[in-house]
Write a structure and sequence with these properties.
Layout: E1 3-11, E2 20-27, E3 30-36, E4 46-49, E5 54-55, E6 59-61, H1 75-84, E7 87-92, H2 104-114, H3 129-138, E8 144-150, H4 151-158, H5 168-183, E9 188-192, H6 203-216, E10 220-223, H7 242-257, E11 261-263, H8 277-289, E12 294-298, E13 303-307, H9 314-317, H10 327-344, E14 351-355, H11 369-376, H12 380-390, E15 396-400, H13 410-416, E16 421-423, H14 437-453, H15 459-466, H16 468-473
Parallel strand pairs: 1-4, 1-5, 6-7, 7-8, 8-9, 9-10, 10-11, 11-12, 12-16
Antiparallel strand pairs: 1-2, 2-3, 13-15, 14-15
Helix pairs in contact: 2-4, 4-5, 5-6, 6-7, 7-8, 11-12
């Protein structure tokens, strides 16, 4: 049994308790003891001097898409940016997309949906969630994985109807598949209601899935239908702010089903959406006061990654690919986007290509849509639609004006300051292209800018939310706290 003593550090144990001076004894891959300063230090095979340093639990990225990368034999160099910022555990399978359960019939449809988060071809030697988790374990994963089961994946695996109401028989197959995935070790259920097919799912379908998770005592993560004052998932004629409407629907889902709800990437997209942050937080806090089990999560940047089709309304998406060649539909889309962008304070200069997703178009990576339009001598609208068509919607974008912009981060700070806000990367990590800054800097920025510089909350509180609070949210018993017997995942 190999022993290591990390000595003379400042210990922040993850529970929120005040930091204290001491040492940590590790035996093999377990914490064997916490030794306070002044006590006799035990003998160990090796020592690490932590003088002047913090010793704390490994960070938990509570909203990740690394489950599409971890099955790859070469995943370690791709995901090393996570470990380099202190992440030792990821909660993956978010936004309704998980690699399991999988069937040959569902593979093509699921891969279209997952194309923006993949970093190499998968051969899917698994079918069930249990098979998937076993496969990942055999890859000697660089980080621990806590895996959610995705609503979209389950639906594709159990029904041939992509949109709208399923037959009762298909729905029951979906629910049984979800039950099995949760029994196989999935730590919760995820919805991607801003994406196909989640945006077309009825409230009754979402309730049925959520009840399965509630019965299993596991949380439901929700990418809401709208993250901005105006969105593609609701008609422009809806006078209420779309993100507030989507939030009300998510909270109603929690109240009707009793499910613990985790509101994913709690962001406010577009300059005209920033003013809705107080109303949104008031709704969450009102629900929590009524006993609703709801929490939020966020990344510490004013930009985030998603598909190039994210700003496109549902009526156009439903007619793809034929819509790309329909002049009337494109004319309507152009006008609707122009009006929506103006009302939202969000437009083509805020759209930056991370990965074109098109062989031979790598020179576009890092460019704004307006720069591509100039390069191609066309309108930004045409440039965006051309990229979407050529990539089959797989172009990965970095959208700016998320809860602020450089020089103005007040909406972001209001979200991060809440003690029920957990921290995430939500980063699509690719081999090539422009990286999302969250992939490399989420936890350093929380600790540096928002703890040390802005003093938005204490170091102990930051570490609590990065570790123990996230572990508790997803029922992870072995990580998130410095205590004897816990896994020796340390930073």
């Amino acid at each position: 049994m190999a022993t290591t003593l990390i000595e003379n550090g400042t210990i922040v144990d993850g529970t929120g308790k005040s930091a204290f001076a001491g040492s940590v004894l590790v035996e093999d891959d377990r914490i064997a003891g916490i030794v306070p300063a002044g006590a006799v230090l035990p003998a160990a095979d090796s020592q690490i001097d932590a003088q002047g340093l913090i010793v704390c639990p490994g960070f938990i990225d509570m909203h990740s898409h690394a489950d599409w990368v971890l099955p790859l034999a070469n995943h370690a160099p791709i995901l090393k940016c996570l470990v380099e910022q202190g992440i030792t555990t990821v909660v993956a399978g978010n936004c309704g997309i998980s690699p399991a359960p999988m069937t040959p019939d569902a593979r093509a449809r699921t891969e279209v949906l997952a194309s923006i988060v993949t970093a190499g071809a998968l051969d899917y030697p698994w079918r069930s969630m249990a098979d998937y988790l076993t496969h990942v374990a055999h890859q000697r994963p660089l980080v621990n994985i806590a895996q959610l089961v995705g609503h979209a994946t389950v639906r594709y695996a159990n029904s041939r109807r992509d949109r709208g109401d399923m037959s009762p028989q298909d729905l029951e197959r979906c629910l049984e598949s979800t039950r099995q995935a949760l029994a196989d070790g999935a730590c919760g259920l995820s919805f991607g209601l801003g994406y196909d097919p989640g945006m077309y799912a009825s409230l009754e379908e979402l309730e049925a899935f959520s009840r399965v998770a509630a019965e299993a005592g596991k949380p439901v993560t929700i990418h809401m239908k709208a993250l901005s004052r105006l969105s593609p998932c609701y008609p422009l004629t809806l006078l209420a702010a779309h993100n507030i409407k989507a939030l009300q629907e998510a909270l109603l889902l929690a109240e009707k089903t009793g499910a613990a709800i985790q509101l994913s990437h709690f962001i406010f997209v577009g300059r005209k959406s920033w003013s809705t942050v107080d109303a949104a937080l008031d709704l969450v806090e009102g629900a929590r006061a009524r006993g609703v089990d709801v929490m939020i999560d966020a990344f510490p940047y004013t930009c985030g990654n998603t598909t190039i089709l994210a700003p496109v309304p549902y009526w156009f998406l439903a007619k793809i690919p034929e819509a790309y060649s329909n002049a009337l539909l494109k004319a309507r889309l152009r006008l609707e986007l122009a009006a929506g962008f103006r009302l939202l304070g969000f437009s083509y200069p805020d759209f930056q290509v991370m990965d074109s997703g098109i062989p031979g178009y790598e020179d576009l990576n890092g460019l704004r849509i307006t720069e591509i339009a100039e390069k191609w001598d066309c309108s930004p609208f045409t440039a965006m639609l051309t990229l979407a068509e050529k990539s089959r919607g797989a172009t990965l974008m970095l959208y700016h004006t998320y809860s602020g912009e450089p020089g103005f981060e007040e909406p972001l700070e209001k979200v991060l300051s809440r003690d029920y806000c957990l921290f995430e990367t939500d980063a699509a990590i690719k081999v090539n292209g422009l990286p999302n800054p969250s992939a490399t800097g989420t936890f350093p920025r929380i600790l540096g800018r928002f703890v040390r510089d802005k003093k938005l909350f204490s170091l102990e509180e930051a570490v609590r939310r990065m570790t123990h609070a996230s572990a508790e949210r997803f029922g992870l018993k072995d990580v998130g706290r410095l205590a004897p017997g816990k896994a020796a995942d340390l930073v």
